[in-house]
Predict the structure.
Amino acid sequence: MIIEIDGVLLHYEEMGEGYPLLLLHGWGGSIGSMAPIGKFFSQKRKVYAIDFPGQSNESSEPKEPWGIPEYAKLVNDFMQTLHIEKPDVIAHSFGGRVAIFMASQNESVFRKIVLVDAAGVKPKRSLKQKMKIGLFKSGKWVYKHFLSVENYQKKMETMRQKFASSDYAALTSEVMRKTFSQVIALDLTDYLIRISNETLLIWGNNDQDTPLYMAKVMQEKIPNSKLVILENAAHFSYLDAPKQFSIAVDQFLEE
């Protein structure tokens, strides 16, 4: 189904019956990314899932660069439009950023929160990574001031492929590139303490994208939280250990 929210065409799906459960996928993902979760919980819940704008061909791209506040507003407006009141939420990776921001602003927006390998804590940068970022920024400045527009664009595309993260390098739209930069620039560490909801952190012990130390920061900062670590699981822990994931989340939401 398609609905217009905040100037974008938003694709969403709903399935099942019962207490509402909202699914928020990770960066570059889609409703399909979390399909196994939706299938499992729709047996007992009314499940809503959205395709974040600019990250799926099903939803349109924002007309201008967005940050976490704009994505959070979109979800809030979507919930109000469909009269979804105080749902539980399962948020993976980037979706976790959005859920953290929303819950920190309004404790009644969700009932219970499940953050799965969630992003939001500023990563620790190695010296090599810091140098890489510095080279990219300095190269961008030089090219911008001394090359023609056409040559600048060609050089920047080469630089992106060489220095940027895989998520950033995969983006072809300038709006989404700026959106990505704004998203990762917001460190949500100080927002965590404002979350009063019961929160389950569920993490793969081999997660390299949002390493386990981030989960421990969240557990320390979010007052009413607990951490479940899934062995032999990586960033998509719910796919790597589906049975353990489903049991842990189902028990948390039902208790």
Observations:
- The CA atoms of residues 75 and 98 lie 8 Å apart.
- The chain has a mean pLDDT of 89.
- The chain has two domains: 2-122+187-254, 127-182.
